Amino acid sequence: MTNELEALYCKNGSRHEVYKAECMDFYGIKRFDLSLIGGTVTLNSEDTIQRSAELKFLTDDRIDFLNDKVKVSMGVYINGSIKWYPLGVYLFVNPRELNGICECTCYDQTYYIQQDRDITPKLFIKGTNYIDVLKYFIISCGVTKINIPSTTLTLNTDLICDHSKNKLEWFNYVAEQINYTKLSTDAEGWFVSRKYVEPSPINVSHVYESNEFSVISGNIGINMDYYNIPNVFTRIVSSPNIAEMKSTYINNDTLSKFSVIRRNGKKITDIKSIDNIANQKELDNLVRKLAFNSVQVEQEITFETLNMPNHNTNDIIDLRSDNVNGIFIEKSYSMQLKAGAKMNHTCKRLVRLE
Fold it and tell me: Of 3.30.1050.10, 3.40.50.720, 3.55.50.10, 3.40.1110.10, which CATH number belongs to 113-192?
C-alpha cells in the first residue's frame, strides 16, 4: 500500500483533511480562493447533469456569477504536505446572499450545453465523422476542454440538428448511435465521453473491507427489485434513408433469475424503434448494453465511508463486509465538505451477462 493510500485509509491512525473552493474565470484560470464555510458535492451517473454541489461561503463582490466557475478540492496531509484531489468544476447557478454569507446551488459545465440550442438548423452530411459531430455541440458553446476518443465511424445518412433538442440532448442522441457514453465532466472539468465498455470485475477501482483499517461506517442497506425486469430487448432502426436494421437480445441465462428460462417461459419485452445508428454492430452493442443495465437492479446497496476523493461514476467496487460481499458498480455518491464527514454511496451489484 502506497503512502497515499495509507493516508486515505487511515492506516496510521486518523487523517488530516481540508477543503477549498477556488473561483475560476470562464477559461478555467484561477482568480482567487473563496472563503469556504461548507457544502456538499454529489455525483449521480443516472442524472442528465451528473455533478452538482451546494456550497456555502463568505460573500465576495469579486465573483462574476454569470461567467466565473468554482473548483472544489479535498486535501489530505501526506508526509507533511497536502495532496489535493479535485471534486469537480461547477457553475454558480443559483446564488443566495444573506448577512454576508452566500449559499449557492451549482451544476457542472454540461449545464452550458443543456442551455444552448441551434436557432438555425445545422446540417451534417453523410460521411461526416461522428466525433466531429459530437465536438460541434461542445465547441459551439465556447468550450475547448474536450476529451473524447476518436472513431472511424461516420454518418450513414445526412443529419439535421434543429431547435427541437438542446445541444446536450443532441450530443447524447448522436453518442448513442456509436455506443459512446452520455456527456459528462470529470473532476478537473474536462468534457468527456468514451466508448461504452461493459463493466468487469477485473477492473476494480476500490476495495472496501471490514477490518482494522476499514473506512466503512454504519450499516449497509440493501434494496431488492425482482419484478418488471425485461428479459427480451429489441431495437429497430427505421429510417427512409437507410435499410431497416433490427437487433434482439433474449436473456436465456440459467443463472439469471430474470431469464426467460428461470421465469418459466415468461417474456417481459422491451421493444422500441430508433431512427439512426452507425451500423448493425453498434445496434447489437446497444441492445446488449440495455440488457446488461437491466439486470443490475437485482440488488442495490447504500453504505457510508469516510470521504474518499478518488471516486468517479461507474467505478467498480469490491465490497467485503460482515453482511454484504461482492462486486458492485458505483451509481452515485454524495460527500459533505467537512473533516471527518461521511460519504454516502449507492451501488448496484455487478451481474454479468452470458
Answer: 3.55.50.10
